Amino acid sequence: MEIKRISDYIWEIPASEKEGMLVPARIYATDKLMREMDAGVLDQVTNVACLPGIQKYAYCMPDGHPGYGFPIGGVAAFSKEDGVISPGGIGFDINCGMRLIRTDLTVSEVTPRIRELVDLMFEIVPAGVGSKGFVKLSVEEFKRVMECGVDWCIENGYGWEEDRERIEENGCIQGADPSKISEKAISRGISQLGTLGSGNHYLEIQIATPDKIFDKAAARAFGIFENQVVVMVHCGSRGFGHQVATDYLRIFDTAMRKYGITVRDRELACAPFNSPEGQDYFKAMKCAANAAFANRQVITHRVRQGFSRILGRNPEEMGMHIIYDVAHNVAKLETHEVDGVEKELVVHRKGSTRCFGPGRKEVPEIYRNIGQPVIVGGSMETGSYLLVGTEKAMTETFGSTMHGSGRTMSRTKAKKGVMGAELKKRMEEAGIIVKAVSMSGLAEEAGFAYKSISEVVDTMEMAGISRKVVELKPIGNIKG
DNA sequence: ATGTGC
Question: Residue ranges of chain A with pLDDT lower than 50?
Fold first, then answer.
């Protein structure tokens, strides 16, 4: 396949390279990241470029790796009028996302209590495959969670009024319709509120690394200072979103025949956005997205309680404000400029993050003159970043950036590379106290199984899409 | 990612 170099950080596969491509594909990467990019990504991103109604380019971010149909790290925007919606472009874990909670505490106050803190968090935030939460819901209440997301949590004592505005979509995407959700999805999801899940999902206690505050103005706006303790939460909609995706992939299989859509790969199953099937999925997807916002909210409540119990002060006194919560597996209706015209588009982000620049109405008022906070998780050994969106992202990538490190090897291969117990020991020697449900699950998340987060972050910064605000280093990790 | 797969 011919790959054209557009700039130091942008590569393009012309639409002439594959039959059926409607737009070119663009990949953000340095030379090194491009050389190491899985060939499956190039195949998938050019398949996406063939989908009806796609606008401008099919994108892949530098953390890209192959996923179900679409690459993880993908961004694709479709015309609202004659484009499609595709579960493969959103991911099975609908509204998998990141939340960052700040504190006024410093490393020296927390380090002496870190083992107790990790132990307590492990106890009060259920993790692992099939884990159940502490919140008991009736079917009617669970449907309220689907419709209201974080609003339900705040009304029921799981959050502060101010939390709402510090969450993408205020923690509640309008238009969620629980009548579009199967019984099976309800039965899987009803007991999972406030749970982490497994895989690379985690709760991490981190430090704002000294000398690694890159953007002083943004750090000030986000309430970040050197040696500060913050808490990062990475999880999504658990079995609930997974079931929604499974249900609608089946429905879309037949819908595609009905609407005469052909795709290069069955995993690209989609339906016209304006069809009844497409709209039903969009409404169901919003239910799962709101459940995921609520999931991270209940976990936040427990994080505040846990810190309070160990440190003997109330969460308000410790300044435990949410900095931001942002999805990296979701489709949204957004207005973007295409060929000089403002258009409403169905923007699919799968393993990519919204990163709106200053001024956009979607950016909370408290951050509007700075830009939207972007939370990206590295591997548990290497650290994470808080970034900020830019003006350039709005014109180049539909206001989107990377989401994390991106795997470089399979889970099976990672497990062969290190034993869980050995990794745990190595991490403790490096000052990271880790408590995991599964030791083999821990090994799958070893740092060597991921791309370098700093390389990926630097790529997006040099491309002008998102800017580094601060690097965050882990001192405690809870995972499934 | 996921009550881990044909």
Answer: none
